[in-house]
C-alpha cells in the first residue's frame, strides 16, 4: 500500500485534465453537438492559462482566462455548426488543427520558462483518512473542483429541469422546439460552457500539472477524452473512472521510467493510450448496440426548424 | 357582450401564404376555429394541411397573412408564443422524446415550476387530466416503451397540460386501430363540450361525417371551400378535394394462383436497434396472387420486406425461391432472380435523390446488357430506357437530366414502378405503394400492380390503408409485433372491426367465427 498510494494520487492528478475535457464534451454531446476540436481547445487553454499566469503571477487568473478562451472557441464552433449548419466533424477537425498550430506559433517564446503554478492544498480532516485521504484529498483545488463538477453535472443532467431540457434538445430537437424550447440558443450555451471546461483541462496541464509550456503538450489527451465520452456512456461518474484509469497507467509508466527499466521509454509512454483504447474496445464489444441507444439520438445532426427529414 | 364572445372565433387565419423554396404549400388560405366545434381539415396528401397548421402553431413563418386569436392579431415567432396563446398541436409524427418518461415529456419546455423536478406534483396533475379526459397512461413509463396509440395520448396530454384551448390533431386516426380511434373520439367530444376548438385532419370520410361539425377542404394549397358537415355529402367533399370526379372502384379479375414461388419459413429479423422486429413468420407467395399485409406502422413490416429482398439479415428461419435457398443471399441475387422491391421510403431507399432520372431508371440493372458492355456504361441506351419509362408510365418531368429530388411524390412513384415492373419481374414486394399520392396517381399505381398480378407476378403488398388492402388482396395477413395474427383467405368476408382487433394483437382464432375461413399462415 505504501508504494501504491503515491501512484494512485498521481493517477488522480494526471487524469484530471482528461476529466475536465470529458465532462465538457459530455455537456456538448448531450445537447446534440459533437466537438472533435478538444485537442486544439485544450492546447489553446494550456497556452493561454500559462501565459496569463506567467504575466500576472496568479494561477487562478490564468485558469479563468483559459476557461474564457475555451468559451470563445466554443462560440465559434456553435456559430459554424448551429447557425450555419456546417458539418460538425469537419469543424472539429479544423478546430484541432487551428489550436495545435496557433498554440505552437504563439507559444514559441515561452518554451522552457517555469511558473510556480497552483500548489496542493490538503483538505483539513479528510486528508488524514487512511489511503483515501492521500489519494483524493491531498490534492490541489482544481482536483476538488473536478470532484464537485462530476456530482453537480450528474445531478443537473438527471434531476433538474434545465438538465432535462438539455437531454431533450440532444435527443429530439424537433420535439424540443415544438414544445417551445430555444434549441439553437441552448446549443450555443452548452457549446460555450463545454468548450470552456475543455480548455480548463488544458489549463490544468500547464498551470498545475506541469507548470511549464511545451508545444503539443496535451499529447492526444483531447482525443482520448472524445473516446472516453463513449466509454463513459455520457455519465459523469464513469467519465471520472475512465479518466483516472488513463491517469493511473500514466503514473505507473512514469514510475517505471524513473526506476530505469530496460523497456524503451517510447513504448512506456504509449501505454496509457494503448490501455485506454483497449478498454474502450472491450467495452464497445461488450455493450454492442446498446451504446447506440445511450448516445443522444440527434448527435451531430444540424437542426433547422422548417427543414424536412 | 355574451353574443359578441360567441361569434368571435377562437382562431382566425386570414390570407395565409407559405412557400417552401419556390413550392407554394399554402396560397392565400382563410381558416377559422370556433369554440366548441370539431373542424375537419380535408385534402389530398400534399394539399397543405400540415403546413397551414404548423403556421398556426408557430413552427412555420408564413410569407403573408395574419392570425387573430379571439379577435386580436398575433404574430407567433415560435411554438412557445402559440402555446402561450392557447394553441396546441399533436403532429402526425409525434414530437416526443423517446428516451424520457411520460412525465418528463409532459413538462418539456415549461417554465416556472422550479429548478428541481417536482415529480410527484407533475404525476398528480397528469393523473387528474388523464382521468378527466379518459386518456389512461402510466406517467413513469418511458415513451419508447409505449404503443403508438399510447404515445398519441401522451402527445394530447402534453397539450392539455399546457391548457390548450385549440387542439390541432394532424391525422391522428391514421395510426390507430378502429377501437383506439373510438376512444379518441370520446375524448374529442368531451373537449368539445367544454368549449375547446378542435382541428381534425383526416382522410377518412366517415370520420368527417360522424365526428365533425364543419369541414374545410384544401386543394393544391388553396382553400376549396368551408361547409357545414350536415349540409354536405362524402361525394361532394371528394369532388371538392380533387376538383373532378374519379371513379374509385378497381377491376380485379378472378385468377387461379399458381404453385408456390417464394416460401418464407419461420424467419426472425432484428430491427436497426438490434431488437426483434419479426419473430417466426411463415408465408408463401404464388403467381397471380396478392398477399396483403395489414398492420399499424412499426410492427415489423419494413424489416419483413427488407429481409425478403435480401436487404436485412435473417437471424432464424429460411427463405426459398422455387426450392433454391435464398436465406442469406445478397440483394443482387434477389434482383437477378426477378424479386423486386418498391420501398416505402422512395427518396432514400428507392432512389438516389441527387442523381437524375436517367441514372435512377437503370439503378437496378445498369450492370446488365444493354446498359453496360464490358464494364462500360452505354449512356444512350440508359437514356432510351428512361424515356420509355417516362412515356409508358406518364411520368411528368422536364427532362431525363432532372435530379429525382425535384420530382413530386406521384411522379417519383411512377418512375420507381416503371423501373421495378420490368419484364423479368416474378416477385414484387411493395410497401405503401400509394402512400402520399393523389387520387389519380393512386389509381394508376394500383392498376399497374393488378396488371403485374395478371401477368403472373407474385405480390406482397404492405399497406396501412385497409380500403386498399381489401380491394387488392387475394389473401390478407394481419401483422402485430412481428407476428401474423392470422391470414384471411377471404378478406372481404371479414369486418373492419375484426381486422382492427387483430391489428391490436388479437389472434384470428379469438376474433373470427369458424365459417370466416382463416388459416394460420
Ligand atoms: N418542411 C418542408 N420543406 C419543403 N417543402 C415542404 C415542407 N413541408 C411541406 N412541404 C411541401 O408543401 C406541400 C404541402 O405539404 P403538407 O402541408 O405536408 O401537405 P398535407 O399535410 O396536406 O399532406 C407539399 O408539396 C410538400 O412537399
Ligand atoms: Mg400532412
Secondary structure layout:
The complex is a heterodimer of chains A (309) and B (521).
Chain A: H1 4-30, H2 38-56, H3 59-83, H4 88-106, H5 132-136, H6 141-159, H7 161-171, H8 173-178, H9 183-210, H10 221-231, H11 236-259, H12 265-287, H13 290-294
Helix pairs in contact in A: 1-6, 1-9, 1-10, 1-11, 2-3, 2-4, 2-9, 2-10, 3-4, 3-9, 6-7, 6-11, 10-11, 10-12, 11-12
Chain B: H1 2-7, E1 11-20, E2 23-33, E3 38-42, H2 49-56, E4 64-69, E5 72-74, H3 79-84, E6 87-90, H4 102-106, H5 119-133, H6 148-161, E7 166-169, H7 178-193, E8 197-201, H8 205-211, E9 214-219, E10 222-228, H9 234-242, E11 262-270, E12 276-285, E13 289-294, H10 301-308, E14 314-321, E15 324-325, H11 331-336, E16 339-342, H12 346-350, H13 357-361, E17 372-373, E18 376-377, H14 379-392, H15 409-420, E19 427-431, H16 439-454, E20 458-462, H17 466-472, E21 475-480, E22 483-488, H18 496-503, H19 508-511, E23 518-519
Parallel strand pairs in B: 3-8, 3-9, 6-7, 7-8, 13-20, 13-21, 16-19, 19-20
Antiparallel strand pairs in B: 1-2, 1-4, 4-5, 9-10, 11-12, 11-14, 14-15, 17-18, 21-22, 22-23
Bound molecules: adenosine-5'-diphosphate and magnesium ion.
Adenosine-5'-diphosphate binds at residues 20, 23, 25, 43, 45-51 of chain B.
Descriptive overview:
The complex is a heterodimer of chains A (309) and B (521). The longest helix of chain A is centred in the middle third of the chain and has 28 residues. Chain A is mainly α and 309 residues long. Chain A is built from 13 helices and no strands. Chain A is 72% helix and 0% strand. Chain B is of the alpha/beta class and 521 residues long. Chain B folds into three domains: 241 residues, P-loop containing nucleotide triphosphate hydrolases (Rossmann fold, 3-Layer(aba) Sandwich), CATH 3.40.50.300; 178 residues, 3-Layer(aba) Sandwich (Rossmann fold); 74 residues, no CATH class. A seven-stranded mixed beta sheet of chain B has the order 16-19-20-13-21-22-23, with helices on both faces. A six-stranded mixed beta sheet of chain B has the order 6-7-8-3-9-10, sandwiched between helices. Chain B has a four-stranded antiparallel beta sheet with strand order 2-1-4-5, covered by helices on one side. Chains A and B meet through helix 7 and helix 8 of A and helix 3 of B. The site of magnesium ion has 4 residues of chain B, from helix 2.
